[in-house]
Write a structure and sequence with these properties.
Blueprint (H helix, E strand, L loop, with lengths): L2 H46 L4 H10 L6 H18 L16 H15 L4 H17 L12 H8 L1
Helix pairs in contact: 1-3, 2-3, 3-5, 4-5
Length: 159
């Protein structure tokens, strides 16, 4: 085998080794994100059982602090989606939320809402995408019933 072939095969072997190491690193990184997602879902379910929608959004935004864009966005979006499913409705939470089909309106709404929340960047917009989806599935904001009494009063009367 000539010297040129040996050099060529060595270069190809080195490239293949680098690709395998890269694939291994990606697999490890994604498995770590998967574990984080499971932890976020458990925490979101726990919070959602006692909180309203606004508290879920506030906590999701707080969870992005100190995380990189990819893992922070994934983590907060999963957390928010899960929490919103379990939470109580907040009056006015879905006011002004556009339909997801209107891309320009959703972009403007997300920019405005991010400024209102004191956040910026892709992470905030992605998290608010979960709010848009939730509000579309939920429908309009609930109206308080004039005859409804707090749940604690109803429980006290039963005793």
């Amino acid at each position: 085998m000539s010297k040129g072939w040996k050099i060529g095969l060595t270069i190809i072997a080195a490239i293949m080794l680098m690709m395998m190491l890269g694939a291994g690193a990606c697999f490890y990184y994604l498995s770590q994100i998967g574990e984080q997602v499971k932890e976020d879902q458990k925490a979101a379910e726990k919070l959602g059982e006692t909180a309203d929608e606004q508290a879920c959004l506030h906590e999701a935004m707080a969870r992005t602090e100190g995380k990189n864009a990819i893992s922070g966005t994934a983590s907060a979006t999963v957390f928010l989606t899960t929490c919103l499913r379990k939470s109580r409705p907040s009056i006015g939470f879905c006011d002004g939320v556009p339909a997801s089909e209107d891309r320009e309106a959703t972009r403007r709404w997300a920019e405005s809402k991010c400024k209102e929340l004191g956040k910026d960047g892709i992470t905030c917009g992605a998290i608010l995408g979960a709010v848009i989806g939730h509000c579309q599935n939920r429908g309009s904001d609930p109206l308080p019933s004039p005859t409804a009494k707090p749940e604690s009063n109803n429980k006290e009367k039963k005793k």
